[in-house]
Structures are given as structure tokens and as C-alpha cells.
What we know:
alpha+beta; nine-stranded mixed beta sheet; 25 helices; globular
Amino acid sequence: xxxxxxxxxxxxxxxxxxxxxxxxxxxxxxxxxxxxxxxxxxxxxxxxxxxxxxxxxxxxxxxxxxxxxxxxxxxxxxxxxxxxxxxxxxxxxxxxxxxxxxxxxxxxxxxxxxxxxxxxxxxxxxxxxxxxxxxxxxxxxxxxxxxxxxxxxxxxxxxxxxxxxxxxxxxxxxxxxxxxxxxxxxxxxxxxxxxxxxxxxxxxxxxxxxxxxxxxxxxxxxxxxxxxxxxxxxxxxxxxxxxxxxxxxxxxxxxxxxxxxxxxxxxxxxxxxxxxxxxxxxxxxxxxxxxxxxxxxxxxxxxxxxxxxxxxxxxxxxxxxxxxxxxxxxxxxxxxxxxxxxxxxxxxxxxxxxxxxxxxxxxxxxxxxxxxxxxxxxxxxxxxxxxxxxxxxxxxxxxxxxxxxxxxxxxxxxxxxxxxxxxxxxxxxxxxxxxxxxxxxxxxxxxxxxxxxxxxxxxxxxxxxxxxxxxxxxxxxxxxxxxxxxxxxxxxxxxxxxxxxxxxxxxxxxxxxxxxxxxxxxxxxxxxxxxxxxxxxxxxxxxxxxxxxxxxxxxxxxxxxxxxxxxxxxxxxxxxxxxxxxxxxxxxxxxxxxxxxxxxxxxxxxxxxxxxxxxxxxxxxxxxxxxxxxxxxxxxxxxxxxxxxxxxxxxxxxxxxxxxxxxxxxxxxxxxxxxxxxxxxxxxxxxxxxxxxxxxxxxxxxxxxxxxxxxxxxxxxxxxxxxxxxxxxxxxxxxxxxxxxxxxxxxxxxxxxxxxxxxxxxxxxxxxxxxxxxxxxxxxxxxxxxxxxxxxxxxxxxxxxxxxxxxxxxxxxxxxxxxxxxxxxxxxxxxxxxxxxxxxxxxxxxxxxxxxxxxxxxxxxxxxxxxxxxxx
Length: 872
């Protein structure tokens, strides 16, 4: 029996023998096609060639392509796990011809490979051909049918409708008739009852399509019309997992060696056995499928997140975690532990899995742990909600309850719906949406500002001149009063302004408006409807007078230094940590900078230092600023500019370049990197799963920091008599301290031993009970050690009671032998009552208990009270 690896290799070898160039799989995550988030068909990476936009490097190509179908038209997510042949990620074996061979060769080679190479029984094979579409002016694909008749009887050639046999990936783009190859995997007795022909395309789990031969000859235009492609294309796609099922004699994709190693690992991990319980089997199939999707997505550069493709991956991961949690008892992160078996199974064909093993493990583990915390709380609350809802005779939970789960505990609505479906319940979606709208309204109200009417002095718009000037003559266009948080402020709009308004993570400029009559302080500058607004605490007495708008140049320079430093930092992080680094937010102020970025684990001290060294080398290099102002966005992309997180860009953009650092940016920057002075990273921390944060200082703040460090070192040296080597001096003192501590410990052990011997000599025997009692200023640990040592030596009738003082606090200790406990005495009860005499309390086990208190004078009485309570 061929293994999955051998089947994959045999396909490539066969088509290589037919003159095909074997190409690697394209990434599953698509970065440069706005119409798709993921590769969902083998043709995606060849779209430009098929459309004739680029010439084909090779006219014949074959590959095994990673595909993902969980969004848009092809969305199999909800079926995955519940049946045996749908998957999120799957491999598609394909052979391609770009203007070379067409239907005849595609069909004959498909037959040769399946029947002559793989030895599939031809009696179990069926082929479908396009029946035609009169409304589109398309006739039956008689050409394909005639070629199939050379290999199959006519009753094994089936006409298929437009839905099944006219292949289109979307509403527009390459398309054409196709011919599907189906296989009947049922046992002979079932085939005798009903022909496989009658089950083709009827969702029978053992009569399935394994290969689709697409004859692309049209391009679907936006108006729905078809136009011939520049060159005819053969695009075939064979489901690798289904082919393995057929060749390995299985009735489920999950029974093949593609999935069995993963399923066995899941079973071992959860103490279950695949095939014994329906719900557990579904959970195991979900996990086995999803771990492949998640691992390959991360490998291709898509980390789980709350947006777009990242959200799809996070949702898949959380679906798997939820199934493991609910049906397999997996309360801790577990999926990341499946990676070794996945790599062993697929790493040879996809070496990128091996190369990025650590990254994949870290991301999955962190995501699992984060979601499990949410899941634990959310499921408990949802269970209670379902119970209460059923008790009231209903099967629909309120949207308010679902929203509370979402809003307070981060429990996703789609997960709530999934759990409810499994319990034959629903949620009121309208109520949920109403709650969502109300929350948005509350957020708006919380930020409400009471504004007065604009007082318009003259019409006009603002022109920002701040890239070139920090002082500029201006006039007020309009102003108004605002009230926010019981504070009255004023908003002023100028015709020209050098003030940078807060955006792109950079805070707004401050400064003054100066006229011949007065000086008005500008405390902030913000944007409203893309209009720079200057915020002041008072209005000019002569608002119509011309004035100079003057930016606080010290703060502006500090801001510019920090903003330019973020660009250098971004570039250095990519160099040190990898190209997966993406900016997730920033804050640029005059005092410091904050930079959030996607990364899977804590950045080490060594990596931080390496990043710092790269950045500061570029600061010392005094790289001049290259500014590209108002250039077409396509030109900016050609420069290699990196778009920043959360920014919106128009047709014309501004690009900032410092050497290899090229980014879209509207902020203010230094004229050359030397103006930054120096960069010092102050902290690195986690913001969220997969997002790290760096905070740093530049320029004068670094000087202040160095001054503080130097002063601290000077003070430390003074404490150590100005030793020339502070490290040696500190280590010497630490060693001496450790030596003295050891001496004290040895002394205490001697004292402990001496006290124990003295106590043994002074045992009082009362009514057959050996009573050991004393009061002394001793550490609690010493008293405990003596008590246990005595219990080991006196195995019967031992009654130990001690009053001790540790760091000025009284402590009562009682130890009993087992036979006294068996006789009804309980150490915990005794100390609890006697501790009242030392104004304290305590307890413990039946044989050993302690109590602390406040009144040391009451210790002797407390010791006697213990004996009294015990009847001794």
C-alpha cells in the first residue's frame, strides 16, 4: 500500500515524465491579491499567466498546492469534523498547461496515472462532462466526452450541469467547462444494489470526486459576458486526501496515514480511542484538520488576530480548542504539542514547517492559553444561561445574555451559536445587535463634547505648512467654545498652520499664537473632519488680528526624533526577529516612543541589545531624510514603502525614507538620523497574544537616564568604599554574607539539637502520656523541626506543646502521636481555642497545628490551656 508521501511523489514524478516543471506550493495566505485572503484553488498563483498579463516561464507545470476554504463562496468550516471528507486546509495535486496541450492530453494522462500507474479499478471510475448552457450559448462538451469514450463505457460518462461542470472561481475571471473524475469506493454488495452512476454528485461519502480537469478557455467579465482567454489553459485539481483514501482502501479521509498519526497523538493525549464515541470522534477530526490549517497559516506569515485573515485563523484555532475542551477534557493548552507529529508527517514535502517550528508552537500555545481562560468562564456562564432558559420553558436565550458573554468575557457570538445548536437552542440575534448598537451609543455619549456654534470670521480652508516651517503668519478663520469634563476650552481654525495635528500615533503640537496685543497658548492640536484644530484655554481678545503661529520647537524636535526612531526601530526589528514583524500601533510623544508589533514571544535581552546597536549605528551614520511628498501610491509601493497599521491612504501619499527604512508616513521627522542623538529601549512587554510592545527614549531623555545610572553607580561605589571593581566588591560581600548565614544556620542546628536533647531528658509522664512543653524565643521553623524529630523518636503517647516568639510575635505549636489522635485528640482544635490567650488564631492537621497571635505575655497561659483542654 502506498503511503501519502509516496502518492504525492508519484504524482510529481509522473507529470515530470510528461515534460512538466515541478513548482513548489504557493503560500496559503495571499498577500498581493485583494480579491482573496487565502489560496483556495491551485490556479491562484497562476492567475496572471492565465489572464495573459505575464508570459509563462514554463508551459507545463505540476505541483501540490496548499489550499484553504473557510470563507467566501467556498466555505467548508461547519462541515469539517462532522463528515469524513471535508477539510479546511487540503492539498491539491495539479497539472497545468499554458497554451500547450489541452483536453485530449489532460484526459489521457489522467487515465494513465489513475489506472496504469496507481492501479485503480477502471470499473469504479466515472467521468462527468459539461451538458451545455443554452442561455450562455454554450453547447455540450462533446470533445471531452469523445476522449473519455476511448477509456470508459458510455454509461460511465455523465452529463453535468453548469453548477457542477462549468468551473468558475468567482463572479469574474478565468473559467471554462470541466470534467470531473469520480470513484465508487463502496463494497461490492452495495454496488450490486445501486449503480455508482446514480450516486455521482449526490454527496455520498463513498462515491466521491477525486479529480477535476478544468478546460479554461474563457474569461468572465464584470457584465457577465464571456471572452476567450489569450491562450487555452489546462488546470487540474485532485484532492490529495481523497486520493489517499481511495488508494489505501479506506472509507474516510481520516482513516488514511495523512491523518491517522495526528489522530493517534490526540487519542494518546486525551486518553481516548478514535472510533469508539461519535462526539469524541468529531472532536478529534476537528482538531486533526485544524492543526494543519493553523500551522501552515502561521508558516505563511498569518498570525491569529482580530481582523480579516487573522480572525479566520483565530476562529479555526478556537473552534478546535473548544471541541478539545468540551469533548476530550483538554483544559490546558494541547494543540501545540501535536506539531512534532504533523512535521514528521508533512515536513519533508513542506520544509517551511520545519524551519518555523518554534514560531508555530509559540503562537499556537499562547493563543490556546488566552482562549482557554475566556472559554472556562464563558462556558460556565452559558451553561447557567441555558439551564435558566430551559427552566422557563424556552429554547432561545436572550441576545442580552449573549452580548454579556461577548462584551464582558470576550466570548465570540459564533461560538455561542455553535454550542447552542449542539444543545438544540438558539440566540435572539436581533437583541444581540440592539445591545451592540447601544454599546456604541454609550461609548459615543461617554466621549460627548458640548460644543458651541462656530464663529466664522472669514471663509477658507487650512493649509498645513508644518513640514517646512515652525513659525508662520496666520489668521483665524473660525473659532468656538467647547465644554468637556467640566472644562471650558476653545477650538481655533487658522488659514495657515505649522502645527501638526495628532494622527498616525504622533501627538499634536503645542505652542503659542502671538499677535501685537497678546499671546495665546495652544495646549494641543487635533484633527476633526480632516481639519487641524488648535485647542486653547482662552480666546484672543482681538481674534481678527494677524498673528504668528509658533510651534514649541523643543517639543517638536523631541517628537520628530522619537517618530524617526520608530521607523529605524521597525526596520531593525525586522532584521533581528524576522519579516513576520508588523507594526500594530505606535505612540510618539516628546518624552518617549511606544511601538507595538506582531511577534510570538518575549524579545530577549540579547535581541533588544542587537536592535539597539543597529538603530544607534544608523543614528551615528547621520542618514539624511528623503521625503517623497504627494507621490502616487503606486510609485510609493515601487519604492518599497511599508504601510503602517491603522493608516488610510489616498491616491497621493507621503513617504519617509532613512536608508533601508521606507514607510508611508504623515508625521514630522528629523532632517538626518544624527539629530535623534541616541536610542535606548526601556522596556519590552506583551500587549496581547502575539503582540509585543517596546518603549524607548531618545536624545536628551537618554542623557538623563545615563546621568541617573551614573549617579546610582557612584552611590553604590561609595557604599563599598569606592572599590575600583564594583562587581568584585559586591560579590565579595555576597559571599561573606552567605558564609555568615551558613554559620548562623549551623549554630541554630546545634542549638536545635541541644534543645531537643534537653527536652528528651525533661519529659514529664502524666497518666501515661509523655508531655514535652516549653516557652522560648525561637524561630517557628526550629520549633517545627524539633516537634517532628521528637515525633519520629517517640512514636506513642507523645504530647508536644511549645510557646515560642519569632520576630516579636507569639506562636503556639502542638504535635501529637498517632495513637493520641486515634484516641480523639485534635491538635487543630486545641490550638484554636488556646490561641485566644495570645489574641490570635490558627489550626492545622489532627496531629500537628500552629497558631499565631499578638500577646506574647499570654504564651505560658496558652501552653497550660492546651494541656487543660486535653485533660492532662
